[in-house]
Design brief:
With 114 residues, this protein is mainly beta. Helix content is 4%, strand content 50%. It is built from one helix and nine strands, in the order βββββββαββ. The strands form two sheets. Strands 1, 2, 4, 5, 8 and 9 form a six-stranded mixed beta sheet that branches. A three-stranded antiparallel beta sheet has the order 3-7-6. The longest helix is centred in the middle third of the chain and has 5 residues. It is elongated, with a radius of gyration of 15 Å.
């Protein structure tokens, strides 16, 4: 079962987080030869998605880094969204390792238009 992790992200700001994937023994899962994919959607039924930049951060430590640039978050309408993170290996195994809610909060201080 996927770990549940919720995030609050400020629009117009950079965002980064590291999550640790654990095996059934509770130890970090070795992510050698795994790829990571993650999407953000407004709802389960949404046909459109936002790519959540997801990369293996530490293969032996089982860590995945999730990130969005300030340009990415600036383009997202404030509100409630959902996401998940899936890993897959060369054998075709696919596993959802994290999921949750993201609240994008509006930016108050913005650069003046030119």
């Amino acid at each position: 079962m996927a770990a549940i992790t919720n995030f609050y992200i400020d629009t117009g700001s950079n965002f980064g987080a590291v999550i640790t994937v654990r095996g059934s023994d509770g130890l970090p899962l070795n992510l050698t030869d795994y790829t990571v994919q993650s999407y953000i959607r407004k709802s389960y039924a949404s046909r459109t998605h936002i790519n959540f930049n997801a990369t293996v951060y530490s293969t032996t430590g089982g860590q995945i880094r999730l990130s969005l640039s300030n340009t990415d978050t600036n383009d997202i309408k404030p509100g409630r969204y959902m996401y998940d993170v899936e890993i897959s290996n060369n054998s075709g195994e696919r596993l959802r390792v994290s999921e949750g809610i993201i609240i994008f909060t509006p930016q108050i201080t913005k650069p003046d238009p030119v």
